[in-house]
Every structure is written in C-alpha cells, then in structure tokens.
Amino acid sequence: MRRHLVAVAATLAVVLATALAPTAGSATPVKGGSAKPLTLAVIGDTPYGPVQLAEFPALIDSINDDRKVRLAVHLGDIKSGSTLCDDVYFEVIANHFATFKDPLVYTPGDNEWTDCHRPTNGGYDPLERLAHVRSTYFPEPGTTLGRRAKEVLAQPGYPENQLWIESKVVFAAVHVVGSNNGYAPWTGNDVPTLEQQAEVDARIAAALAWIDEAFDLAGERRAKGVVLMMQADTFAAENESLDGFDEIVPLIGDREADFAGPVLLLQGDTHSFLVDSPYPDAPNLTRIVVEGETAGEWLRLEIHPRSQQLFSWERIQIGGQP
After folding, report:
1. pTM of the model
2. Strands 69-74 and 225-229, bridge-based pairing
3. Residue of 130, 154, 236, 290 with fewest CB within 10 Å of its CB?
4. d(Cα 70, Cα 103) in Å, to the nearest integer?
C-alpha cells in the first residue's frame, strides 16, 4: 500500500469541516434534502469517435425529453483512448454539455488527460491536459454544467470532486480514473515520473478524504443512502495492475459496512453493463458499471427516499439500437 500525502489530507479535512459547518445562508448541497423522489440520467465512455459524436446530440435529446429527469451524470471518458486530446475537441464537448436542460455532473476519465501522453493522442503532457480539463469543464467550482446550474460543494483544489444531498441521499463525484488511477507510466518511461507520482498521490489522498466526507455527512444528516460516482472500474480483472486503487477500494467497503443504509457505486471504464456486489462484507453496496462506447443508451436511475427500495434503474435505448 502506498504512502500518500497525509498533510494534504489533513488540510483538506479541516477545510471541508469548515465548509460543511451549518451557517446562516448555508449552501443547498449541505442541507438534508427533501424526501421527494429523484430521477437521474447516467452515461459514461461516450462519445467515442466521429459516429458517436454525431449521435451524441440525440442521446442528450433523449435525456432532455424525459420530464422526470432532474440531473444528468457523465462518468468520464468523453473520447476514445486513441484520439487527439486537443483543445478544439474539448470545446466541442463543452458545447454539447451546455445543451443538457438539467444540471450535469461530470467526473473526468483517463482518456481526456491521463492517457494523452500517447502518440495517437497527440503526445501531450497529461498534467497540462488535466489543467485544461479543469479550466474548461469546472471554471466555477461549486456549480455544475448544463443549462440549469446546480449548487454543489467542490473539494478545495479538486473542483471535479463534488458533493451534495438530494432526496435524503448523499451524492459524491470522486476523481478516480482508469490506467491504474493514473499510475500507468507515460510514453518513454518504465515507471511513473516524479511529477506523475506526485499528482496521483495527492489526488488519491484527496479522494480518500472526499469518500470519508461523504459517509461522515451521510451519518450526520441521517441520510437514507450514499451514491459514489467515478470513472474507473476498480475491479476490472483484465487490468494488469490495480494497485492505484489499493486504498480506495477497501475504504469504500469499510465505510459502507459501518453505514446503515444502501450504497450505490457508479462506474464506467470497461464499457459493458454490469450490476454486482463486489464487497462480501458490505452486502448493502451495489455497483453498476454503465454501458459505454455507445451513444445509443443511458441509465435511468431513480431515488425513492420513502420506499424500502431506495434505488431502482432501467437501461434506456434510443435511436432504434438494440
């Protein structure tokens, strides 16, 4: 298990504790949330290539046309892993994101920054691409994308890590990506560079603090459940190395085991729809990997705070695709 930046995590904990303290005029994301049902649309790993990019507006229209949907989530990978990471493409996707009628929560994937060192991606500096992703999609920390802005709590230094309470459920987007959470060596290297190692270590420390914050808040506010959202499939058997998730995976299981309500873990990355319970000691946790590499499907997720079954979901096909 890797040693991470304890000082960073401690500082974050202090900042977050201050941000979450109830005050007059406290932001909506840290209130208890009403008991009204909530419907979300969840997508990931799209659009991949020019065909899906052309189909992407129809996917957005399908989500916009569902009158019950009040929030959309993109679990990362806005491009394939073999296409350019250029500014023009990022702007095209940003313009598409702006057409979502409802608030859009987006957590970055490895294809839009971690893997941009690849020659097929343009041979970019991944850290420079990460900075550009943040400036493009998170210019105002504490707000979401889409036509209707939603007020959320953003983690200091990590605007993509967002947290809020709605329908008696704590939601947290956590920046955890494929390519072994960013540890896969960049082109021309056999091991991570010092700069790469420092970024991943700090981001993992922030992710651990954010996951703790979500469960702490759920306990304090007596939430019905918790939803965690990230790009990486942290259990992908085909990955050669998963040590970039060595601390994140057990922390989620430990915190769920101590939490009274159900937990939903939403992931992308591996493109094939999957529902499982990967924690034998945490039976109340359900994981969903959304179907990816398609613009013909989205996941309709419903929250029922007054029901014994808090979460339910349905795969929505569009455009006549199977």
Report:
1. 0.91
2. unpaired
3. 236
4. 7
